Each structure stands twice: as C-alpha cells, then as structure tokens.
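User: I'll paste a sequence; please echo it back and then give the predicted structure.

Assistant: Echoing your sequence first, then the prediction.
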Amino acid sequence: MKTWRPGGVPLHPALVHFPVVFWTLDAALESWAILTTSASAWRLALWSLAAGCLSALPAMAAGVPELLALDGESAQAAAAWRHAMLMATAWTVFTLLLVLAPAGAPPPTLPALVHCAGALAGFALLAAGGHAGGRLVYHHGIGMRDRP
C-alpha cells in the first residue's frame, strides 16, 4: 500500500489536528452546557462533535498506509497499532455519541448528562491515543530521518 507523503512529508500528522480540536471543543462545550444549562453551547457542541467525526476520516485514511508500511514484528509496529486502536476506539465512541445524541434534550436532562460523560470518556481515549502517537515520533523515531 502506498503512503501519502506530499513533498516527502507524511500527510497523517497534518490532518490529525482537526478532529483533536473538534472533539476537545465538544467535550468542553458539553461540560459548559451542563454547568450553565446553555442550549446554544449544547448545539455548538453537537456541531463540533459532527465536525470531529467527519474530519477524522481523512486523518485515519492517511494513517493506515503509514501503519501498514511498518515492519509487523517491530516494537514500532506494536506501538503504532496501540495508537491506531486507541484512536479508532475514540472515533467509535464519538461517532456513537453523534448518532445517539439526544435531540432537543439540552442540559440538565439525564440523557445530556450521560452524553457528556461519554464525551469526557471519548476525550480520555483521545488523549491516550494522542500520547501514543507522540511516543511513535519521540520515542520510536517514526517519521524522523536522523535520530540523535
């Protein structure tokens, strides 16, 4: 499988920032909506959730070829699979939250509280997956030409 490296640089790292920002904003806005009972913050959170789920698709699509290009038996590959599984799980949680979003149920209803708890759990998975991705670069040297 061919990797996507315009100008010799992997495309995946450039795309991951979008879902990270949107999902972080979703968790923050849902929490804010719960605390303030703001219906507008709730609606904005759901739009951010949708944008995160959609913007994650090209990021994942660009990451898969990079993952498959690694030696399957290496420590790098194991770390890359850990990162991929954490991020895929986060995407699944956020996508389920989007599909199951309580329409017309702004906080402080019980469905909104459960939804917010799910967003915070998704954010925890996102943070763990992001940390695993950072370890790929800074610990395993993935994507670095000359490692000191």
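DSSP finds five helices and no strands in the chain. The radius of gyration is 17 Å.
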